[in-house]
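tRNA (N6-threonylcarbamoyladenosine(37)-N6)-methyltransferase TrmO: structure tokens wanted.
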Amino acid sequence: MVRENEIRPSEVAIEAPPATDAGLVFIGVIHTPWASRLVTPRQGREDGPVCRLEIFNPWWQALEGVEKIERLEVLYWLHLSRRDLVKQSPASDGTSRGTFALRSPVRPNPIGTSIVSLVGIEGSTLLVRGMDCVDGTPLLDLKPDRTLFKPIAPPQAGDFEVG
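Answer:
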């Protein structure tokens, strides 16, 4: 297994440009059983452990109606991730692929997403299954899983044409 922040053979790091403030606001924190990336699962599982999405005040009111949604898309900030690799070797087999061809947490803007099942609510904390991040990960946003919705408008001529 790779150690944290190790560059594997065939991986390429760059000197990243200076960060600019995107104005992100953390709306909460994610509590999971995993203290390190080394033990965190690579993908969340529907039968995984119950994790807690603690929502900070003043965002509590934004939870109204969430109890009616069976699956949520959770967006979070992968605060422990490197941001400088443009090519990665996830299999450690000497081959590499571009960062944008992978679901690796190592990204220029380390935003993670998980589709989770809502299993309960305790005040301003959501209980979910399907997370795949370390304990204490900052929470960026919550959205209903888009696959639960149908398109608002019927298809129109030209919707699928490529210009």
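The first strand starts at residue 12 and ends at 13. Residues 22-147 form a domain with the Elongation Factor Tu (Ef-tu); domain 3 fold (CATH 2.40.30.70).

Cheers.
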